[in-house]
Predict the 3D structure of the following.
Amino acid sequence: IRNGDAVFVFVTEDFSSSKQVKLDNSDQAPDDKISVLKLNTLRKFKTGIYDYSMMESIFTPVNITKYPHTLKTTTTSQDWCGHTFTQLNLGDNAYHFKQFSYFESDGDEEKTIHKALLEEGLMTRIRINKGQLQEGKIDLIPSTIYSRFNYKKMDVEKATISKITTDNTLSYLIKYLNIDRTISIDVEKEFPYKILGWSEDNGTGLITTATLKASSNEPYWKQKKLTHASKREVLKLKY
């Protein structure tokens, strides 16, 4: 059993639909601009003597009616042995997948994956869509972190999504039908639809569980002075 910190950073940005990068001067590219909700997830933990640091960036259009699929995800994983980088970019009918890795079993890989919902995009969709996720049987592409740790080739999988509603919380259960992976996501029932906790079970007997300790609405990109370090204490960050 290992302890660690998971930090989820949600922020809206103007995104280039053609280049799939953050626009530096969005006013000069009105026809290329798509408003997205970006989620950066950072996971840091120790395993024995050495450290792991993993980060995902997910870019989901705010107008999910007009743009129903996440446009891009990137994932990096670093430990003392080496590191990997994975990216998916949405094309017309498929995701363009690229992976670069220090490890032979991963290798460098490039392929297309049929367009479907991304597991990484579920939390951004929840917050955009007033806490709601589509229920029932769906096509879903598992997370890149799951693929990395379990040496699974990424592809579209069948999954089911179900929901339990209480007075204050919406609890989602996402279960894959053909791979041993189950995810739960707890979210506030009312605005701003914070993610209250989540878990991942890959059938190994060890379950990853995260519970919200603290949250803050801050212009973090401006808070880089030594005097701003105290804000980490508010967020209860140890790593």
